[in-house]
Amino acid sequence: MKKQAEKNKKRIFTAAVIFALVSLICGIAVSAAYINLNTVKRVVSTQGAGGTPFSSNYLLLVPRDTTSYSIKNINCPEGAGSAEFEINVCNYVQNDPSKISENDIKYSLTLTQLNNDGTVNTESFSGLKVTDASGASFTFTDGVCCISDQLLPGNVKTVNTYYVSVPKEMVNNVDLRAEAEPSDSSSYSVTNGNKLARNFVFTEYNALSSSWTGGFKETSAENNDAFNYVIRGQGKGTVTLSWDSDQLEISGVFLDNYALRDKVTSEGNRRSLTIDVDSNNGPNRYDIQFYKTKNGVYTNMTAVNGYVTVSFSESVS
């Protein structure tokens, strides 16, 4: 009995030691996991609280090598002689003005006239005007207006504003590309290697009318793997886009971006797509790419235009 009691004591002692060791190891593991988790949280929190102190009311941050920009529509009221808008460039995070750049940002603002196919328009428009807050006026030469030596001083909340007036003759015909680009490496360092840019399109607006139309931007059918088709308008209703699938294939990216794949129907070689539109509560412009097919015929843009039709049915509610 005495030997059995001693054996039991040894077993209890051994079990206690093992339990203590396991608890110690688990505690270390939990602590390590907790520390690592907190470290991750701190890193994410620090990154999430960041931002680039170079912003604008309309222009968007894009990497310096980017050349394809998003589109902003500016309405020209029916009967008005011009479309008026302003572009500002700021040295703070747009959604948090308290975060101001500690360093100077030097940049240039370049405005470029564009044809509907994206090429530079070199016409001279007497009614096209650009001024800044001081009253200084800037001109276009061969379709380009470059406003250089612009400064956003460090540690001082600053907004540089540019007023743009686009004449009626440019509306629906000529677009504008705007690029605010840092002038030196130190300024690019402040903007995290980004610039500000956007394309502006101008459409006439009649609050009493509803109309949606479509057309290709290209003027030539040669040397193109794809064609850019623009649907634009105002009002609420349904746009029906139809195309010859033997000749053209619609961009899957466009369909996915607007969740429209299930709205494409087929009848023979014709494909049709219905889009519910409402310019007051959604886009008033859709940019679509159509790709050439293997056996398609693309003699000229008259032929290509014949492959696509657009109709609009206004909502009665």
The unreliable regions are 1-5, 24-50
Largest sheet: 6 strands, mixed
How many H/I helices? 4
Helix-strand pattern, N to C?
HEEEEEEEEEEEEHEEEEEHEEEHE
Q: How helical, in percent, are the residues?
A: 10-25%
- The helix/strand class is alpha+beta
Instruction: Please tell me how large the radius of gyration is.
Output: 30 Å
Structural features, described:
- The strands form 5 sheets. Strands 2, 3, 7, 10, 12 and 13 form a 6-stranded mixed sheet that branches. A 5-stranded antiparallel sheet has the order 1-4-11-8-9, with no helix packed on it. A 4-stranded antiparallel sheet has the order 14-15-20-17.
- 20% of the residues lie in helices and 44% in strands.
- The chain is elongated, with a radius of gyration of 30 Å.
- The protein is of the alpha+beta class and 317 residues long.
- The protein contains 4 helices and 21 strands.
Itemize the secondary structure elements and their pairings.
Blueprint: H1 2-48, E1 55-56, E2 60-63, E3 71-77, E4 82-90, E5 92-93, E6 96-100, E7 105-114, E8 129-132, E9 137-138, E10 144-152, E11 159-167, E12 175-182, H2 185-190, E13 194-205, E14 211-216, E15 226-234, E16 236-244, E17 248-250, H3 252-257, E18 264-267, E19 270-278, E20 285-292, H4 301-305, E21 308-314
Parallel strand pairs: 3-13
Antiparallel strand pairs: 1-4, 2-13, 4-11, 5-6, 7-10, 7-12, 8-9, 8-11, 12-13, 14-15, 15-20, 16-19, 16-21, 17-20, 18-19
